[in-house]
Give the backbone structure.
Amino acid sequence: MALAAPSPQLLDELAQFFRLLSEPARLQLLCELKQGPCDVAALIERTGFSQSHISRQLSQLQRAGLVSCQRDGVRLIYRAEDALVDDLCELVQTRLRTRLESQLAQLGKA
Amino acid sequence: MALAAPSPQLLDELAQFFRLLSEPARLQLLCELKQGPCDVAALIERTGFSQSHISRQLSQLQRAGLVSCQRDGVRLIYRAEDALVDDLCELVQTRLRTRLESQLAQLGKA
DNA sequence: AACTTTTATGAGCATAGCAGCATAAACGGC
DNA sequence: GCCGTTTATGCTGCTATGCTCATAAAAGTT
């Protein structure tokens, strides 16, 4: 009987965490950072997002502990802090794939 | 080099999936259904949500294949379709806990 | 201190998504 | 057929959040 009647607080925190991952921009930033730590200028160049946009998204991810940053002079070097997101994405990705495959199979049968 | 530069489409689909889980109401419904299949009336009673609200959330979850339903006369019996959500929630829950613990330890040291 | 570079933040706009009300649609019983 | 029960859906308002512009704050240089 896993996850039996979780408290509203837990549900809220879970939902809040998933909400962080519910934005393609944030996922992309996380993926970029997973390639290795880099500064904001590099993120701007790679993603095409505006500086303020990136700054806001990163601060959200940082509050959740998914990224951290360290100063290098005037620049900030961000890094991905948690492998959990990787695992979650891979689980979901696998599911998306198998689901599409089964839909394909259904089409074939019909 | 996991998750290297995923396509925008994949990012969108991942984000869309996580968005489904970013709503406490939907998580709660999934949890209720995980206790076992049940009809909408029971869900209304257990959660206190309005009928239309529940219907909408369930339809979203159904489109994603996270729940399915089967007719019993005029009523619909819904059931949770995928253990993935359980796994995801447990992973995140574990992370939330360890994170709070480390924050506690930090407080102790300071 | 003044100036440059880099990042964070306040204000405003636009849009997405939730929540409720009313109503339509599906199903069964008569 | 009509009526009651259960679920889905159109419409509406509201809130939250993404995104941009402009500007402030932080850090280094001279």
Remarks:
- Strands of chain B lie at 38-39, 67-72, 75-80.
- Chain B touches chain A through 40 residues (CB under 8 Å).
